[in-house]
Write a structure and sequence with these properties.
Length: about 250
Amino acid sequence: MYPPERLPAVIKWIMAMMAGCFVLQQFFPGLLVIWFGLTPVLVLERFWFWQLATYMFLHGNLIHLLFNLFAIYLFATSLVVNWGEREFLFFSALCGVGAAIITVITSLHSPIPVIGASGAIYGMLYAWARENPNAVVYMYGLFPMRARHMVIFLIIVEFLLSQTPSPIARFAHLGGILVAWLYFSAKGGQIDNFRSWFFKLFGGSPAGWRKALSPQEEIDRILDKINERGISSLTPWEKKRLDEAGKK
């Protein structure tokens, strides 16, 4: 459930890119936001489609950056360990771009740039809660709440707050969760085809992709992993599943 002691390389690179972009923003604040922030009117009228992805690496201030980096460390790291780097990259990119598309749709003529990785992070949070539904999380560092209840709480809060004007892109947050939900709900079809294309583009094959397994298949997979690499190779999530199966 908790991040491992050693950060996966992909997480280090994502954090480094975000930090590097933030440093550049201090030298070219307006220029970077105009060109690489997500401005719906520019995406639709000038076809600046790269903004659907680049906005995730820019941040409004140091607190914004640190909060997102901490969320990536806390939730994304365990996803990389459980899924592998390619699947994680595909999923996080899909959530981030999907959140951007929903933001554009809900604010078609807005000239205000949206920046930050929160859309992708909310998708990661949803995925993490699916794998650790009963994990206890302290909301705002104060209130204990199970992961699955936390996601429901955040959806309600973000939706209610989206009804009033705010500098925070609430629909990007909701969009990230929606895309993550669609990602896990989809079975076969275009999702599988696009996923295969993505893996082919970046090398390798989708062999690392782990589809939803039955409880017994998941236990068999964990036992096979122990035989191949030893019990120390198990993630906290896998140890928890094995312990629950042992009790049954």
